[in-house]
């Protein structure tokens, strides 16, 4: 009988769904990918069909496990966070499609809520109590706002507008689940209804100080806590893959993480101060803060990085721009670029954008301005403008936006000597070189674009005993990085002028959709 020494990991991202087969050294032996099919029945609505997603995941698992079924030891999961679904506890019937984190149908509810007298009092009370007691928990309350990319207001919208969900809530038969909960439920044929700490901590309903679902948020949004699943450690046992599914193997699910946390884990960023910048659908900066949380400000939030069995949680500070990486994908879907492999060469065809600026806001804007109604905009088009100018402007926007994220983060945390960079857009040397020079920080680019997959596999390996500790993972896993160093002697004032012009363009995008009839 062959030795069981391989791990299967699934990563359900915002753009792609992947499955991979990995060995103990973290090497990806096989990988398969399918695009995530987004449904947009109305402007600002973004959904995923659960039946289509399950079909795709099933195919991917079958593809990577072929010829290796006897060697598979365990299974790990990484997912985009805050995408959720509800279903009938008794029958398993879905009540609607997945509502993704990008969905904006509750934007007006969020605006009304945030501008209410109640919220003013709530935030003021949090600030007073936080200042008097030095409580990070209370300081968090002082900056709390309802947001579309967290769950409470979108779930409230579902309960208000979906009659079946409302009826099942009343009869205590409603099940709620984010992507990892649903996938565990499917893989175990309904035997396990659970989530994991890093995923729960991002929902806006979980209290990271009590490590439990928040009774305060439950009361504020009138959502009963009993509809939320059990929360388990990142390397806990989440049940066994059911034999009847027909995969040809039945192994434990022993590792689950949110995608950003999985990327941190997969890049071995286990020490206090380690910093990662992900250039993907979301541009996200994460700083490992160890076992301590930090007070929030300027949209920097403390979330759980991972919680290992028998250990205190590791926290990370997170700041992100949800209006980022889809711009690069748009260059292909719009026909500007035939293949993403050609995008750098096209951008370098011209020495500058000749005044063209691009502001990405395909699902509203988080930063530099916070506006759910902002729209993607292109400025400065002239009769001389070519495709190369527009493509260069799109890539420059990624560098400017990323630099803004880093600037905000390092107002509160010590600026590291170097930052690990991953995500699909990190394949663009143009973006990385521009970013390094503007931010004056050396970058370490992960040679693997599958950081979240590797992280899911590593935490699952830790859960099953393939690794004994984080140190064991570090000594077992071989990762490759390339360095991008900024030129300390460069005094390119044009770059700074272009960045100022980009900020002016950003200001013109605010409230754009409310201007239109």
List keywords for this structure.
23 strands, 18 helices, five-stranded mixed beta sheet, single chain, 517 residues, alpha+beta
Characterize the structure shown.
There is one protein chain. The protein has 517 residues and is of the alpha+beta class. The chain is built from 18 helices and 23 strands. Helix 3 (117-133) runs antiparallel to helix 4 (136-143) and helix 5 packs across helix 6. The chain is globular. The termini are far apart. The relative contact order is 0.13. The model has no long low-confidence stretch (mean pLDDT 90).
Oligomer classification = single chain
Compute the gyration radius: what is it?
22 Å
Hey, roughly how much beta strand do the residues contain?
A: 15-25%
Structural class: alpha+beta
The largest sheet, given as strand count, sense and whether it forms a barrel, is: 7 strands, mixed
As residue ranges, the low-confidence spans are none
| 3D shape | globular
Percent of residues in helical segments? 25-40%
Strand order of the largest sheet: 17-18-16-15-21-22-23
How many E strands? 23
| Spatial gap, N to C terminus | 69 Å
**Mean of the pLDDT scores?**
90
Number of helices: 18
């Amino acid at each position: 009988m062959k030795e069981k020494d391989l791990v299967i990991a699934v990563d359900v991202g915002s753009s792609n769904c992947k499955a991979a087969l990995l060995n103990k050294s973290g090497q990806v032996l096989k990988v398969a990918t399918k695009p995530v099919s987004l449904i947009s029945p109305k402007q600002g609505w973004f959904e995923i069909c659960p039946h289509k997603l399950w079909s795709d995941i099933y195919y991917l698992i079958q593809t990577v496990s072929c010829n290796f079924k006897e060697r598979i030891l365990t299974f790990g999961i990484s997912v985009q966070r805050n995408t959720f679904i509800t279903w009938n506890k008794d029958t398993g019937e879905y009540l609607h499609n997945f509502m993704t984190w990008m969905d904006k149908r509750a934007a007006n509810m969020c605006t009304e809520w945030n501008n209410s007298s109640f919220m003013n009092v709530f935030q003021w009370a949090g600030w007073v109590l936080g200042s008097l007691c030095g409580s990070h928990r209370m300081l968090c309350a002082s900056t709390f706002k309802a947001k579309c990319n967290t769950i409470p207001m979108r779930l409230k919208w579902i309960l208000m507008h979906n009659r079946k969900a409302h009826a099942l809530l009343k009869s205590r038969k409603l099940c709620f689940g984010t992507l990892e909960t649903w996938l565990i439920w499917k893989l175990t044929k309904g035997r396990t209804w659970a989530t994991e700490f890093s995923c729960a901590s991002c929902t806006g309903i979980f209290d990271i100080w009590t490590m439990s679902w928040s009774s305060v948020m439950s009361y504020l949004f009138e959502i009963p806590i009993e509809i939320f699943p059990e929360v388990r450690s990142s390397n806990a046992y989440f049940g066994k893959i059911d034999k009847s599914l027909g995969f040809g193997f039945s192994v434990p699910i022993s590792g689950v993480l949110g995608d950003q946390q999985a990327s941190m884990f997969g890049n071995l960023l286990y020490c206090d101060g380690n910093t990662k910048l992900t250039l993907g659908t979301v541009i996200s900066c994460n700083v490992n803060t160890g076992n301590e949380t930090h007070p929030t400000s300027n949209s920097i939030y403390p979330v759980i990085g991972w919680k290992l069995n028998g250990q205190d949680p590791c926290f990370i500070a997170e700041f992100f721009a949800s209006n980022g990486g889809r711009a690069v994908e748009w260059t292909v879907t719009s026909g500007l670029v035939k293949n993403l492999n050609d995008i750098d060469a096209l951008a370098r065809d011209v020495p500058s954008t000749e005044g063209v600026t691009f502001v990405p806001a395909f699902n509203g804007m988080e930063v530099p301005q916070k506006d759910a109604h902002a729209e993607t905009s292109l400025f400065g088009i002239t009769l001389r403008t070519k495709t190369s100018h527009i493509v260069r402007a799109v890539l420059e926007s990624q560098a400017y936006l990323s630099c803004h994220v880093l600037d905000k983060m390092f107002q509160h945390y010590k600026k590291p000597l170097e930052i690990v960079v991953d995500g699909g857009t990190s394949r663009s040397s143009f973006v990385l070189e521009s970013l390094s020079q503007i931010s004056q920080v050396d970058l370490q680019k992960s040679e693997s674009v599958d950081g979240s997959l590797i992280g899911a596999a590593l935490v699952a390996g830790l859960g099953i005993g393939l690794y004994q500790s984080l140190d064991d993972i570090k000594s077992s896993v071989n990762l490759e990085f390339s360095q991008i160093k900024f030129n300390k002697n460069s005094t390119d004032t044009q770059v700074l002028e272009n960045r100022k012009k980009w900020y002016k363009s950003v200001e013109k995008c605010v409230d754009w959709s409310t201007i239109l009839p």
